[in-house]
Write a structure and sequence with these properties.
- The chain is an all-alpha fold.
- The protein is built from 5 helices and no strands.
- It is elongated.
């Protein structure tokens, strides 16, 4: 059973994902994420240049005036979080518009429809035959359906 989202949650989700513009908004957000990634990389290069090399990245900052000093300090502080946000936003955009293809390697198990016998968890043949070292990925179909509904609800 899926809970109905409040209107506020739906509104903020639509704003966050697509600026209320559906596909066009998603493209705008994706491009903005990519530009943020480029700005972050160029900022990193400028900090390295200003500090005269990677080895001096965390060295004392030359104080020219307060605004510039504050900008360099906050840039070093927020570099990694902003880089993570920019990369994940760009990646999700590229997956969404299918520039990157996700590989689905799912295993189909035959289902016997007439079988009504209930088994204990320890009696399932798959749990007896499969070793934990052989397990690569575990998927929960219900979660996949829920996430699909959430992602494509707009």
């Amino acid at each position: 059973m899926q809970k109905n989202k409040t209107q506020f949650v739906q509104w903020t989700t639509a704003l966050h994902r697509s600026l209320f513009l559906k596909v066009t908004g998603r493209i705008i957000i994706g491009i903005a994420s990519f530009l943020l990634f480029l700005i972050t990389i160029s900022g990193l290069v400028l900090i390295i240049k200003r500090q005269q090399g990677v080895r001096h990245f965390f060295a004392k900052i030359n104080r020219d005036f307060f605004a510039q000093y504050f900008h360099v300090v906050s840039g070093r502080l927020f570099l990694i979080p902003i880089l993570i946000l920019a990369l994940t936003g760009t990646y999700l955009f590229m997956v969404r518009i299918e520039l990157l293809k996700k590989t689905n390697q799912t295993v189909e198990y035959p289902v016997k429809e007439n079988e009504t016998e209930e088994l204990a968890i320890t009696d399932f043949p798959i749990f007896k035959k499969t070793k934990l070292n052989d397990v690569v990925k575990v998927e929960f179909p219900l979660w996949k359906e829920i996430l699909t509904n959430i992602m494509f609800s707009n």
